[in-house]
Structure formats: structure tokens, C-alpha cells
Design a protein that fits this description.
about 240 residues, Undecaprenyl pyrophosphate synthetase, binds magnesium ion, 8 helices, six-stranded parallel beta sheet, binds 3-methylbut-3-enyl trihydrogen diphosphate
Length: about 240
């Protein structure tokens, strides 16, 4: 596919989908229309990643901080999420995409939780890609939650504090069943992580683009992957050490 090296694909791509509101104001539309258009960009990103053979795609859809937005915007976002899931479930199934979530799912409304559970159940046989939606997600909350569950295990006597390693920690995060992101994309020209996958992104390649999320096309995604493929991931080693291997 269009200049993509199939042997050097990121295994896990994570995206901070930002800029729906600014896209709406730029087009003299209401913010909610921006979110609607954002949902269409989600469809295209999911399709492209699946086509490329990306194994894990994680989308930041709603942060724990986003609860503080005006109530009508939060409501509209939740309604859009339900619509998205209902409209896409058949396609996800057909394409072998398994839906997963990370975040404080209990904070979501009963209706949304039900729709999520249903979609996860219906897609659980999917083996080609895992699509994870980060919902009511905050990385610091996740880390605090992780510390709590490790302390519980130590208190229960199932874990010794001397045996706690980086791997133990990773295995208690919401993301315990997935590899760390290799490529982390943020749209809309903001250069920050906004409390997304802080632990997991320790060695992610970061890619920032000014494109607003509703305008983010398949070609933009391919650009990000091509850029990733030009990077040398050294993990602290020297360039010579990498070529010696
Ligand atoms: C991203 O777009 C969607 C969510 C955060 C839910 P924004 O709504 O943050 O758009 P801007 O940043 O205001 O343009
Ligand atoms: C991050 O975007 C959260 C999502 C994309 C869901 P925000 O728009 O909420 O982030 P800030 O407030 O600009 O950092
Ligand atoms: Mg934003």
C-alpha cells in the first residue's frame, strides 16, 4: 500500500482525536456538528488501520476531564458514541475487529455501558485488530488505580513487595492485555498528551499534525505511518549498536 513498509508497521497506534470544536467554529457550525464529523473520521481511521494490518488501535474518545464540559455537549458526545456503536457493530464483526475499552467505564450512563457491553460481546471473536476506546479515561487515575490494586494484592498475600517490577505495574493497568503504543498521533496542532497513556507511552514515537480531527483522512494517517517508518527507535542505545544487531 502507497509506500508503506509492511515489515515495519507499528503494532499499536494510539490517537488523541482533537479539534472537533475548532473545526465546527471554522465552518460556522455548532460544536456537536464537529463531533459528528469526528465520528466519520473515526470510521475511516478504523478502516485504514484494519486494512494496513495494525493489530491495536486505541482512540482517546472522552477524557475524565471532559466531564467538566457543558452538560449538553457531554450528552451529545455520549449519544454519538451509542450511535457509532450501533451503526458499526456489524462492520466490526465482519472485519474481525474486537472492541475493548479503557477508562472509568462505571462513570458512563447505563445506556452507554449496555451498548458497549453488547458490542464487546458481539465482536469478541474478532482476531484481526483490537479497537480500544478510551472513555472517561485519565492516565493519572489509571496509575493511582494500579497502585491500589497492587497494594491489595500485597495485603492479600498474593504478591510480595520485593517482586513488584515494571512488568507487574504494566500488568495492573487498564491496558494489561496490549502492547505499549509504538506510534502516538495527536491532531489539531496541540503539543501535549492531556493525561493519555502516560506510563505506556514512555517509548512511543510521537506525531503531531495541525489537521483538525474531522479533516483527518486516510492519507493523513498513511503520512503518520510513513513518518514513523523513517524513525530510528533506539531505546537508549547508539545507532551503531542497532545496526550491529
Ligand atoms: C476532541 O475535540 C473531542 C473531545 C475532546 C471529546 P474537541 O472537542 O476537544 O475540539 P477542540 O479542541 O475544542 O477544537
Ligand atoms: C483530549 O482532548 C481528550 C480527547 C481527545 C478525548 P482535549 O481537547 O480534552 O484536551 P485539552 O483540554 O486540549 O488538553
Ligand atoms: Mg480539544
Amino acid at each position: 500500500m502507497e509506500g508503506i513498509d509492511q515489515t515495519n508497521l507499528p503494532r499499536h497506534v494510539a490517537i488523541i482525536m482533537d479539534g472537533n470544536g475548532r473545526w465546527a467554529s471554522k465552518n460556522a457550525l455548532r460544536r456537536v456538528v464537529g463531533h459528528k464529523r469526528g465520528a466519520q473520521a473515526v470510521r475511516s481511521a478504523v478502516r485504514t488501520c484494519r486494512e494496513l494490518g495494525i493489530q491495536y488501535l486505541t482512540l482517546f474518545a472522552f477524557s475524565v476531564e471532559n466531564w467538566n464540559r457543558p452538560a449538553d455537549e457531554v450528552e451529545a458526545l455520549m449519544a454519538l458514541l451509542e450511535d457509532y456503536l450501533s451503526a458499526e457493530v456489524e462492520d466490526l464483526k465482519e472485519k474481525g475487529i474486537r472492541l475493548a475499552t479503557i477508562g472509568d467505564i462505571d462513570a458512563l450512563s447505563c445506556g452507554v455501558r449496555h451498548r458497549l457491553a453488547e458490542t464487546m460481546r458481539e465482536t469478541e471473536q474478532g482476531r484481526s485488530m483490537v479497537l480500544t476506546l478510551a472513555l472517561s479515561y485519565g492516565s493519572r487515575d489509571e496509575i493511582v488505580e494500579t497502585v491500589r490494586s497492587i497494594i491489595d494484592a500485597v495485603t492479600a498475600g498474593t504478591l510480595c513487595s520485593e517482586d513488584i517490577t515494571k512488568e507487574t505495574f504494566s500488568n495492573h493497568l487498564y491496558t494489561k492485555n496490549m502492547p505499549d503504543p509504538d506510534l502516538l498521533i495527536r491532531t489539531s496542532g496541540e503539543y501535549r498528551l492531556s493525561n493519555f497513556l502516560l506510563w505506556q507511552s514512555a517509548y512511543a514515537e510521537l506525531y503531531f499534525t495541525p489537521v483538525l480531527w474531522p479533516d483527518f483522512t486516510r492519507e493523513n494517517l498513511l503520512d503518520a505511518i510513513r513518518d514513523y517508518q523513517c524513525r530510528e527507535r533506539r531505546f537508549g542505545l547508539t545507532s551503531d549498536q542497532l545496526t550491529e544487531k
